[in-house]
Amino acid sequence: MDAFYASVEQRDAPELKGKPVAVGGGHRGVVAAASYEARKFGVRSAMPSVTAKRRCADIIFVKPRFDVYRAVSQQIRAIFADYTDLIEPLSLDEAYLDVTSDRAGLGTARATAEEIRRRIRDETGLTASAGVSYCKFVAKLASDQNKPDGLCVITPDRAYAYIAALPVSRFHGIGPVTARKLESLGIHTGADLQERSLAELETRFGSSGRWYWRICRGIDDREVCSDRPYKSVSAERTFDTDLREPDELATQLARIAGYAWDRIERAGVAGRTVTLKVKFADFEMITRSRSFGTPLDRSAFEAAGQQLLAALHPVPKGIRLLGLGLHNLTEDGAEPARQLGLAI
């Protein structure tokens, strides 16, 4: 989806259309999503609201409505289900689809993507961009190529050259730190990466080196998994003023634990590791974790978080953010259906 949260807000409040909008933010928060009008000023998700305001004086901050975003996401997911059962959600606004079965009889993956995009626009009033290709990695790259409201199709015979022309910073799975390391080695584009041997990449990057060697050649055998497991479920909150008092922090953590547990129940998962996230007033961030032999219930989850927090007292400086999450999750891991072949 294109600027999903912000686009939903502009759809539901016509007076916001054409204006720079940031979902989230506020006094000390961060931007959860930015409209394309705001992005022209350099406003991006995860940016502190003060920075967003500095870059765009006219930016309009809107309080998030996650219940609405989830409802729209489910509406879009229902459209996907008319074309395939193999849907792997990445977030509320993005998913991989394997349309090999051609359930709608449209003949090609391109035609299927065009039909899905049309239905999303007609039924939700929102726009979506799609990348169509033979594997996840190339499809993901293509999905960002012609945003917003665009379609990009990369056939197998074009993939090697397409990847060669892209900066490595665009590669899904290569973050800013790795991108800088690659660039320090003279690897700026896919073409540069294609010139490096498997042995060299493995020496420098370990097991990740083999992955880099494969994806720069368009080799990605990962299947679309309709039961993609969660890695973690968490919630966090940034406070309007820095907190230091143990009782006040414990009260806030209890609220955060409640939000997190609601998400855990919606996800239908169980877990054995509790992780506390703390960001101090000077933006230093630490995490503390504790693992258990069996999955936790709600009271044990909150109690573990409170114990981790209590162990930090007295805190050396004010705390601006607390988060609590559940890791080492368990859920049903059914074997995904095997992908076949369909014309792109």
Tally of contiguous helical segments: 13
Write down the oligomeric state. Answer: single chain
Q: CATH homologous superfamily name of the domain at 233-330?
A: DNA polymerase, Y-family, little finger domain
Please tally the β strands and state the result. 11
> What characterizes the major β-sheet?
4 strands, antiparallel
- Largest sheet strand order: 8-11-9-10
- Arithmetic mean pLDDT: 92
Q: What is the succession of H and E elements?
A: HEEHHEHEEHEHEHHHHHEHEEHE
| First-residue to last-residue Cα separation | 21 Å
The unreliable regions are: 332-339
CATH topology heading of the domain at 233-330: Dna Ligase, domain 1
Please give the CATH architecture of the domain at 233-330: 2-Layer Sandwich
- Residues in helices, as a percent range: 25-40%
What is the CATH class name of the domain at 233-330?
Alpha Beta
**What portion of residues belong to β-strands?**
15-25%
Shape: globular
Structural class: alpha+beta
